């Protein structure tokens, strides 16, 4: 004798609830479809502020936010910055410098940057002799210039 579908669904639900009551199955799994469970995005984001002078008390000359995976924010070269930060898990201290010619002009800047990368927070305040050195030392992450060639 065949049972109609509503009776089968009720019996299945009753069996799942009984198993859940015994502690063998979480109650939410018994009553909610698996497809309804939301996936949690792991944040990978950074905030960068560049101050004129030697210290964070100087005038703010540039600032940017950066989101990675998916890429977004106000950073002018977000994709390149995310590619540089990904292998070091957002840790600015571990960024590899890029060799590039910089003028020997003393126009000091101070960079204050923080990131939250897969649950880990990092923060750095670092001084540089000029913006070019800051960009080179940070694998381009601290390069917030809006030039067209970049």
Structure write-up:
This protein has 150 residues and is an alpha+beta fold. Helix content is 25%, strand content 25%. It is built from four helices and five strands, in the order H-H-E-E-E-H-E-E-H. A five-stranded antiparallel sheet has the order 3-2-1-4-5. The chain is elongated. The termini are far apart. About 9% of the residues have low confidence.
- Percent strand equals 15-25%
Number of strands: 5
Q: Nearest-angstrom radius of gyration? A: 26 Å
Average pLDDT, rounded to a whole number, is 82
What is the element string, with H for helices and E for strands?
HHEEEHEEH
For the largest beta-sheet, the strand count, sense and barrel status come to: 5 strands, antiparallel
SS content category: alpha+beta
Model regions low in confidence, pLDDT < 50 over at least 5 residues: 25-38
Number of helices: 4
- Shape descriptor reads elongated
Strand line-up of the largest beta sheet: 3-2-1-4-5
Taking the alpha carbons of the first and last residues, their distance comes to: 74 Å
Helix proportion? 10-25%
């Amino acid at each position: 004798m065949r049972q109609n579908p509503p009776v089968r669904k009720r019996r299945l639900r009753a069996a799942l609830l009984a198993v859940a009551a015994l502690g063998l199955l979480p109650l939410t799994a018994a009553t909610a479809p698996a497809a309804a469970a939301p996936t949690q995005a792991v944040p990978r984001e950074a905030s960068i502020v560049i101050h004129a002078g030697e210290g964070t008390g100087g005038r703010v000359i540039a600032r940017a936010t950066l989101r990675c995976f998916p890429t977004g924010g106000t950073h002018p070269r977000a994709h390149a910055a995310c590619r540089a930060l990904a292998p070091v898990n957002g840790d600015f201290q571990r960024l590899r410098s890029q060799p590039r010619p910089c003028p020997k002009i003393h126009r000091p800047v101070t960079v204050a940057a923080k990131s939250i990368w897969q649950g880990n927070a990092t923060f750095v305040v670092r001084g540089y002799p000029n913006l070019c050195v800051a960009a080179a030392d940070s694998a381009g992450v601290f390069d917030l210039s809006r030039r067209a060639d970049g």
